[in-house]
Structures are given as C-alpha cells and as structure tokens.
User: Fold this.
Amino acid sequence: MTRTDRTAATSRRARWAAAGRRHRADLVTGGLFVLLAGWLTHGLWPDPGGRVLALNPEDQALYEWFLAVDARALLGDFGLLSDRLNAPDGVNLMTNTTVIALGLLFAPVTLAFGAPVTFALLAAVNLAGTAIAWYLLYQRVLGTRRLAAAVGGGLCGFGPGILSQSNSHLHMTAQWLVPVIIWLVVRLVRAADPAGRAATAGPGVDRRRLVSSAVGLAAAITVQVFVGEEVLFLTALTLVVMTIAYAAARPALARRALPGFLAGMALATVLAVTALAYPLWFQFAGPQGVADGMFSPDYFSADLVSWSAVSPLSVLGDDSTARLSTGPAEYNTFLGWPLLLVAVAGAAWLIRRPLVIACTVAGLLMAALSLGPDLVVNRNRTEVPGLYRLLEGLPVVDGALPMRFALALLPLIATILVLVLDRALRAARSPVRWLVPGAVVVALLPVLPAPLPTADRPALPEFITAGHWRDCVRPGGVLVPVPLATPKEPWPMRWATAADAGFSMPEGFFIGPYGRGGTAAMGTYKQPTSLLLTEVAKRGTSPLIDDNHRRQAQRDVQFWGASCVVLADGAPHESELRGTLEGLFGPGTRVADAWTWRVG
Assistant:
C-alpha cells in the first residue's frame, strides 16, 4: 500500500468514526425523547384497555373507534363513508378527524392488541416523533449545535400546547411531518437559486432536485391531509407568511429564486390537488359531508392573560389557570412570562437574521389570530376587534379554532431559541456563552411537562369481550346499545371498538350535516325510541308503554336496520330500562352479563 493509499484509508476511517459519533449522539437524543414521551404517557401503559386519559375520556373513546374502523382496511372493509356508526346513514370519515393515515399505519397493532394499545402508543409516538423531526431539521438544515437543536426539538414536541392537545387529539399532536414539509420547501428554494448553485455545482437551476422536492412535497402534503388537516392549514399559513417576510429581508435571493421556486410549487400543487381531489370533494360535498366548521370562534378564542400563565399540565403549573381556556386539551397559549421575555430578547438580539425576522413576523400574526374575533381579557370579552375577523366568512378557513393558531408559536419560538443558543455556544470566551443558556433554562423551567393524568375506566361487558354479540347481530349488522351513544356520553362506542368495529350502531359521537339547514353538528337527530330510553336512563322514570310506543319502536329499529337491542349490566337505572324494553319488545334473553332482544 502506497503512502497515498494509507492516507486515504486513514481519512476514510476518520470520517466513519466522526459519522459514528454523530449518529450515536443523534440516537441518544432520540432515545431521551422517547423516554420522556413514555414517562408523560406512562399512566396508560400498565393496562391501556383499562386506563383512560382522565381529562378528556370522551375524545379518547372517539379516537379509539376511529382507529378500529381504520384498521378494517387490512380486512378489506374500509371506505370514506363508514357504515359502522350513525346507522343507517353512516359517517363521513373525511369530515371527521379520523387520522386515517395513522390508523392504516398501525392497523396491525390495532387488530393484534386492540385500539386502546394503538391509542396509547400514538399518544407517545406523536410527542417523541415530533421532537425528533424538529431536532433533525434544526441540526441538519440549519446546521446548529446538537444541544441547541435538542432544546428546540424538545420544546416543539413537548411544549405546553402540544402536551395539552395530547389529551386525545391525535390529529393535532402528530406533527412529525411538519419539519419534513419545511425541509422540502427549503430544498425547493435552494434548488431554485442559481447563485447558490453556482457556488457548488455550477450555475443554473437544479431541475432534478427541484422536481424531486416538488414530488416529495406533494406526497408529504397528501399524507398530512389524512393525518390532520388543521395542522397542515396552520403549517401552510405560517410558511406563506414566513416566505413573504424572508423574501422581503433578502430581496436579491427572492429575485433569483422566485421563478424556479414558483415552478416547483406549481408542480407540487398540481400533484397534490390531483391526489386529493376526490377525498376533498368527498369531505365537503360527498355523503354526510359538511362544508363549514361547527365550532364558535368566539368561544374558542385565546384569553390575552393566558399567554403569561403556566399550563396546569406543567411541573410548576397551577390548576387555577385552567379557567383561562376552554378545557384541558386547549392550553395552547400557556407559555409564561419567562419564555415570552427570553424569546423577545432573543429575537431582538438576532433581528438582522432573515430567518429571525420571518419567525417574528409569523409569530406576531399567529398570536394575533389566536385572540379571536374580539379581545378576551381575564375571561371578559371586550369590544376590541381582533385580527381573526378578517377570516370570518371565508369558506372552510373560518372553521379553524382561533386559539389553535397559537400552536404555530411553539416551533417559531423554538427556532429563535435554537439560533440564540447556537450563537451563544459558538461565542468562545464570552459571557454570552453562559448567560444565554442560563436564561433559556430559566425560561423553560416553568413549562416543563408533567405526566398526563389518567384514571380507570369501566370494564367492558363480557357480552362484547367474549364475542357473544356474534350470536345476536350478524357481522356488519346493527347493534343498538341501551342507552345509545351520544357526543357527551359515547361509551357504548367502546363496545364496537373492542369488537374491531365488527358491527354498526345508531347515532353516536361524530360530526355530520345535522345542524340547521344541513350545517355541521355534533351527532344526529334522536329517534323517538332513543329519546324515550335516554330519558329513562337519565331520570329513572318508568313510562307507561302502550301500542303507540311499540309501533314507534318497530319503526325505529327498522329505520336503523337493527338486529339486536342490548342492555348490559351496570347501565344507569338498569331495572327501569329493562322494564321499558320489555314493554317495547317483549321478554328479553339473558346472555352473559346482558339482556338482549332480537328485533331483526
């Protein structure tokens, strides 16, 4: 071996060793994020089927049902209109936040171990995956120090808003594709910049890289639609604002890259629209679809005081601040004064950097939009108009919940902190090398996350878990639980989830076109028999059943296409419900721990 060969071999070994050290550092960081996610969700892990997120169990029941329905794709039984709820009309899965992509990806887990296991797994995976994705973006795209990237990734993945959304909102916490989308947009810009190309591989637009980036961007957008459209909307709006602000800060780059960038974005748009044309049509104009939002922007407006509050879900949180939000799944603005002040100071320190300018402009806009149509201060609605009024009346867009615009601030603030920390860590023999990291640590201490509260959930009837339901209702047929599932009490939907959505149910918890004039509403109209049974379950009354009731009950079960009516042990006012059902359908049949009536 010549000296040149030995030198080359030594150089290769040195590069491999350096790469190994880098990968080990990345694996350690990712492993720490996984451990943190597991700790935050550890209350579910001893028994996912017997434990539930205590602060939002209704939505957990809904998402577990979604996962069970999505998993049926492996059984060859799946469509965008599901017939497994709201019999006979069904449920439009695109209109609802059904996390179809996640359900399909984890379908083997769901079919093997049950939807509660998949839910618990996704609750942790979304947190860790989001943090890891942002860490890699900061480190690989911005080229920052690993410590700075880890701090930024941790804030993106475990910040107050996303931890709060972890209370059953899987579609909001699955944000690990967002950094991928951003990376592809950056890649488009770099491929479209002739001057940037001239410094590396020659002048001109890198067409191959431009096309591959556009195709990748279209694919990522398409998948994100089937994970969570609201996250995609917030990402797109934030990126549009950041792109405009960045271009204004670097006009020369904007002039050079604009033609190629627009061409790449046009290609990505055409590809994404082609792939999504039918699903989006189905969502807004298909069967059981709705074209508008159903949540009031006035109700879901962020309180101005909440920005300085600390989330009750943080280690140093105080339950008294919960009054500043609509519920435990919406602590999106609870960042605290220390973090806000450090972010502002960091932005001021690096304000000459175009990326900091873009993050600052986008952050201010998203914060303003989160305040809703009218400013709310300490739970008091004022007459001061908010920026969100500009969105009111816009189709689809005005259905966004104002307070969720604040979720976009986590990565924006994290990006500023990453750049500030990276700058400080590179400042050798300077006070900022210690002062800046110290200030960031102090700012992050109040928002350190605490484990999500969990509780025991009632056991499922043996009638369901032992498979006795198969003797009462044919596969895919309609089982009527008593009382029926409603948006506020969706618990019977857990029966269908435990049966891998092997049967359908009337009514239930979903979004459908049952509002005034066909607008969006939660749940559907209740049939007379359902109203009667709900009243008995609520008040414990024993109504006098006559022939009119019996004829109406027959019409209702025929409308539902029902095979079997089931009253399980432990139902509220069980004896009164059983007496009512016997008056309607005659003597019941005891099967395991339930009374059943065959009606079809």
